[in-house]
Amino acid sequence: MSRPTVPPVLEVQNLQMHFAARDGVVRAVDDVSFSVGRGRVLGIVGESGSGKSMTAYSIMRLIDAPGRIVGGRVLLHGEDLLEKSPEQMRRVRGDRIAMIFQDPMMTLNPVLRIDTQMIEAVRAHRNVSRGEALALAREALVRVGIAAPDERLTSYPHQFSGGMRQRVAIAIALLNKPDLIICDEPTTALDVTIQGQILHEMQTLCRESDTALIWITHDLSVVAGLADELCVMYAGRVVESGSVQRVIETPRHPYTQGLIASSPSRNRRGAPLHQIAGSTPSLLNLPSGCAFRTRCAHATDICATTPPLSQDDAAGRTWRCFHPLHEAAMRGAVIHEEGSDG
After folding, report:
1. What is this structure's pTM?
2. What are the C-alpha distances in Å from 76 to residues 7, 200, 212?
3. CA angle at 26 for the pair 274 and 318, rounded to the nearest 5°
4. Where does the protein principally reside (predicted)?
5. Is 59 exposed, middle or buried (0-12, 13-18, 19+ CB in 10 A)?
6. Domain segments of the chain as ranges
């Protein structure tokens, strides 16, 4: 007997977000689709300007003019967030969906004590006493590994290190036990030791609380050990998606291969790092067809037309490329790279 299909916590369908500029329209998010289930981690990777953060802000409805969501659906447990009023979205944010930013000071008010900020975050969504809210705040600090929580609650943000501030920001995100947490490069500015601790804690918390997690980063090595599924974005579009293991071990899109080859962990000591040729094109002046074709060694004339979305139903893989890389060819490329002295 087959097991029933569990619906995703979040399903993004053909999301489009544009900026109206003097010289034209910037398609910052261009027909993006993905989903993430309960207790699962979705990684979104790509270079700066690929549309990762704009996708997150669009989901949260945090886009200001001249930005505008022009199409698609964002379904949270089947409810379209794009149809909700601003007041309804204020009730959703911080309660059913939480977001952790790269800079924790975007979350923390520098002139308020930590207990004041955490109590307000709880009571904005729950009808509880100040004492009950304080108890929840203390519990959240303990969950993210902050020692002496009672002392820390009476402190101000400037009295914390960068890693501790980020832990507090994560604790605030966890306060109301959201269905989904979106993390926008929250460990980029931290040292490697603290980064590793926070990654481990977030993965554990996600599994224990059955919370869906979206982790946005430019670093493939971060999501390799964290995520279950992976979306690779380039110039506002998802160019490849699938399970993190399959995407990293056998990439189909040349851009994904370039990101993987650029990772220091895949190169021998002393060997120069691989670089993707050229630079990300301006979203105001994208090349026709595949946006990556001007930097791609595999490009041909057909790449001047838009590649269709290809899908491997058996493996759950999707990609947009006329010349997808194949497993056998990639095995040869990896062996050559790892066996080379540079």
Report:
1. 0.88
2. 10, 26, 11
3. 55
4. membrane
5. buried
6. 10-96+179-339, 106-177
Segment 126-163, tens digit of pLDDT:
999 999 999 999 999 998 888 899 999 999 999 998 88
Using alpha carbons, select from 230, 200, 288 the residue that is nearest to residue 36: 230
Over the Cα atoms of the chain, what is R_g?
Answer: 21
* CA 282 – CA 219 distance, rounded (Å): 22
Q: Say how many residues make up the chain.
A: 342
Give the CA dihedral 325, 12, 307, 184, nearest 10 degrees.
-60
120 burial type by CB count under 10 A (0-12 exposed, 13-18 middle, 19+ buried) = middle
Measured distance CA(169)–CA(163) in Å, rounded:
10
Find tokens 């964002």 and name the residue. 74
54-109 pLDDT, tens digit each = 999 999 999 998 999 999 999 999 999 999 999 999 999 999 999 998 888 888 99
